[in-house]
Structures are given as structure tokens and as C-alpha cells.
Amino acid sequence: MTRETAPGTPSARRGNGQRGIEQHGNGQHENGQRGDGRQADGPHGDGPHPRHALAPLLASPVRLSVVAALAAVDKAEFGYVRDLVEITDSALSKQASALEEAGWVAVEKGQVGRRPRTWLSLTEEGLTVYRRHMAALRAIAGPLA
After folding, report:
1. Where are the alpha helices (DSSP H) in the chain?
2. Which residues contact 53 (CB under 8 A, 6 or more apart)?
3. Hey, which residues does 33 pair with through a beta bridge?
4. What does the alpha-carbon distance between residue 137 and residue 95 come to, in Å, rounded to a whole number?
5. Which residues pair with residue 29 across a beta bridge?
6. Looking at the predicted structure, is the pLDDT value of residue 35 above 60?
7. Phi, psi (deg, nearest 5) at residue 25
8. 70: phi then psi, degrees, rounded to nearest 5
């Protein structure tokens, strides 16, 4: 009975001499580098890894939640988004400002009767970035059974 050797152990290395980096049969290392130091194609040789399409600004669960809420509507009142995402006014204001600065969210101020209101909406660029981010997450996760 033979035992499997864990990757990175001396007997599991394939002669590349680098500890913790196992070379795959296609000349790529686990760290995504080719033997010559250049970036390798994705796991199936069909282009870069989908993580490269992720938007770093959407790494924040709150910002992702705000963008997801806005993706489903033309525009939403500030208070509605705040309650939906379950954050404070100041937290939403801060996140909306960061998304507005990136050009992904539009902020519109107005009044309903005598009461001031703020509406948030995704820009075309914001919607495109969100769709690309979600497609990358699905590609990374693979099919779920």
C-alpha cells in the first residue's frame, strides 16, 4: 500500500528545486509562473486566470452589496439601500463616495416635498464592472452541484 505525498514535500517535487512550488506537466508552476518567469495561461491554457477580471474595489462585502442592490434597479433612494445592506448612513455615504469617485455610481440629490432626498444609481461603467466581476467569481468557483 503506497501513500500519497503532500505537494511541496521533497519527494513530491519534480526536480525544480523550489520548495513549495510544484511544477505541473505543462511547464507551469503552482504560483502561475512559467519556468522562464513569464505569467502562465490559466489552468486550462486558455488565457489568464479569471481572478484578473475581479474589481479590487468590489472586494469589500459592503461595496459589493451596494452595487448588487443598484444593479437590479434604475435608481434607489439612499435610505432604501442603507436598510437593504444593513449599514449606517455614514457607512453608506463613505462607500457611495468611493464608488462615485471610481465612476461606477451616480449620486443625485433632490427633494420630495420639503424633504431632501438622495438617490443612487449604477452608471453604465459600474454595471459593466459588476457583471465582469460576477462572471469572474462564477468562473473561479466553477459549476456548483
Report:
1. 61-71, 78-85, 89-101, 124-141
2. 132, 133, 135, 136, 139
3. 39
4. 21
5. 23
6. no
7. -60, -20
8. -75, -25
The DSSP annotation for 106-140 comes to EEEEEEETTEEEEEEEE-HHHHHHHHHHHHHHHHH
CB neighbours of residue 127 within 10 Å: 15
Q: By CB neighbour count within 10 A (0-12 exposed, 13-18 middle, 19+ buried), where does 96 fall?
A: buried
pLDDT digits (tens, 9 = 90+) for 69-126: 999 999 999 999 999 999 999 999 999 999 999 999 999 999 999 999 999 999 999 9
Report d(CA 34, CA 86) in Å as an integer: 45
Collapsed DSSP state (helix, strand, coil) of residue 87: coil
Does 120 or 32 have the greater pLDDT score? 120
Tell me if 123 sits within 8 A of 104, measured CB to CB. yes
Q: What confidence category does residue 143 fall into, taking pLDDT thresholds of 50, 70 and 90?
A: confident
Cα dihedral across residues 66, 104, 71, 80: positive or negative: positive
CB-count exposure of residue 15 (10 Å: 0-12, 13-18, 19+): exposed
Q: Using CA atoms, how far apart are residues 65 and 43, in angstroms rounded to an integer? A: 29
